[in-house]
Design brief:
- With 274 residues, the chain is α+β, with helices and mostly antiparallel strands.
- Helix 3 packs across helix 4.
- It has two domains: 115 residues, no CATH class; 121 residues, no CATH class.
- A hairpin with a 4-residue loop joins strand 6 and strand 7.
- It is built from twelve helices and nine strands.
- The N terminus and C terminus are likely disordered.
């Protein structure tokens, strides 16, 4: 599609754009099934309607990000938290939608690989940690029995682990202080503390994602789908399939009432920054 046509389509309302005959047919051809295509269109229209900032994004970028999610058989529903379409300001294209994998998406893809017997990530609360031995990767905790009391307790760290079907096991523990330093190092938005980043809105969810990403990318078996998800995470996917990565949290939240912060995209050399 030419740049001129793209600019026209960007100005067209997303619902009108995606339901136009040419685009609908193109989507059906890619997905390979008219019924699945109709379901895909319905789910994306719903996601856009629930997030006014997405309506300002380049239409093609929304579809490209959503098609990646569809190819991974993940849902864009915010309630499921498998992946998100996140608005981002691009100096050349205006607002574009980027694909962001949620921690529940990581879990889904790992489970589907059939390689993992166990996979878990957990916030450790104040008073629960007895000790963590990084050499033998063994943790001893005394979990708070009262779920309501535990939920309200202060988080002091994060623990993640996996075990393969063949018995190989790997664990990781980060203190809350370490996670905070990580967020500050890689998230300029979080550094600004203006309340619009996912780190500020749901620190635990971003911490879970970071733990799983660090653990699986370094020691886990990665299926083809998992590799595609890693490569697409935090990327603006162009029409030719190439990806332009955004600086971790220099984004606007997909929460409808979030403040819109204009930033510019930049290419990063590593996907281990989350």
């Amino acid at each position: 599609m030419s740049n001129e046509v793209t600019k026209v389509n960007t100005k067209m309302g997303f619902t009108s754009y995606i339901t136009s005959t040419g685009i609908t047919q193109k989507i059906n051809n890619i997905i390979g099934d008219d019924k699945k295509g109709a379901r895909f269109i319905s789910s994306i229209v719903s996601a856009v309607n629930n997030n006014p900032t997405l309506k300002e994004c380049d239409n093609q970028s929304i579809i490209s990000g959503a098609l990646l999610g569809e190819s991974l058989n993940l849902s864009p529903s915010p309630q499921l938290g498998q992946y998100y379409l996140v608005p981002f300001e691009n100096k050349d294209r205006g607002k574009v939608a980027t694909f962001q994998l949620g921690y529940k998406g990581y879990i889904q893809l790992a489970i589907r690989s059939g390689q993992y017997k166990k996979l878990n990530v957990l916030a450790i609360k104040e008073g629960e940690l007895v000790k963590y031995d990084p050499l033998n990767e063994e943790i001893e905790v005394d979990l708070i029995d009262d779920e309501e009391k535990r939920e309200k307790a202060k988080t002091i760290g994060y623990y993640a682990m996996f075990e393969y079907n063949n018995g190989f096991r790997k664990t990781m523990y980060w203190s809350k202080t370490k996670m905070e330093k990580h967020a500050l190092q890689y998230s300029k938005g979080y550094q600004a503390k203006k309340g619009y980043t996912f780190w500020e809105k749901d620190f635990d969810a971003m911490a879970y994602k970071t733990m799983l990403r660090q653990l699986i990318s370094k020691w886990g078996i990665m299926s083809i789908d998992m590799q595609q998800a890693f490569e697409g995470d935090m990327a603006y996917i162009k029409e030719d399939g190439t990806k332009e990565y955004v600086d971790n949290e220099e984004i606007v939240s997909n929460v409808p009432d979030a403040e819109i912060i204009e930033k510019e995209t930049k290419t990063v050399s590593s996907l281990d920054e989350l």
